[in-house]
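Researcher: Last one for today. Full complex below.
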Amino acid sequence: MGKYDGLIAKPFDWADRDLVFHSSSGLGDLGPLVAFLNREMVDGADLNIFVHHIEVKGDEAPDYVDVHTHDCSQAYVFPEAGLRFEVILGEETHVAESPATVFIPPGLRHNLKILSGKGIEVCILRKGYYG
Amino acid sequence: MGTYDKYIVKPFDWAERPLIHHDREVMNGLGPLMAFLNTDMVADADLNIFIHHIDVKNPPGPDYVEIHAHEVSQAYVFPLPGITFEVTLGDEVHRVESPATVFIPPRLRHTVKIIEGSGIEVSIVRNEKYEQSLAEDAEA
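Model: Here's the assembly. Have a good evening.
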């Protein structure tokens, strides 16, 4: 065992665990939400990172998250082409295609809906836990 | 144009731009480094995000980053299986297979080397510009 082994974390499926403001069934319908970093996985972590594996199978993608805010910044990162999504920022609704990043400053109301396609979304919150 | 259009940004190839402590030519040999978020892209961003598209054609992959440290925390996220990498944390060297995350606390000296495979690496620095986060006198 090394001194820094605890800084290397293996991801795990968030499965049926709660995520405030989010519907776990709606999330799960799109594909597994996988926890990559939080302060329970790595003591002292000041970033919270999820990777959502997404595949929109039907014509209508589910709503799975209420409009909400955080007291820290957040980023949605869509690394590859292939996803189309709708993001609410304040009172505005924007539709965008991956690859793309959405930066959400502290206190800005937001929401996300995946409209079509397949790929991954990396969700990064600038503190060690979600909520 | 809305008030918040500025928060939705398209990534771009970092191409020949320098990145301190990194050999950009060698990095580009592994695949393109894409800028996904920084303060040039979004003025008030307090996260710096790069995604490196990696394909090691002749394993083991080359060294391309000197050991260094930041004043803020960082995470390397390898979201998909298919990559074997080596990460140096202080004076320890760890070999890891993706998917995995490496969290690097402020001022911990570190480097990373891709040994084999293909996929993506997401690098997240909890600060604004990458260069502004560097700590020149960190301890191992």
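DSSP finds one helix and nine strands in chain A. The beta strands of chain A are 8-9, 12-13, 33-37, 48-55, 74-78, 83-89, 92-97, 100-104, 110-125.
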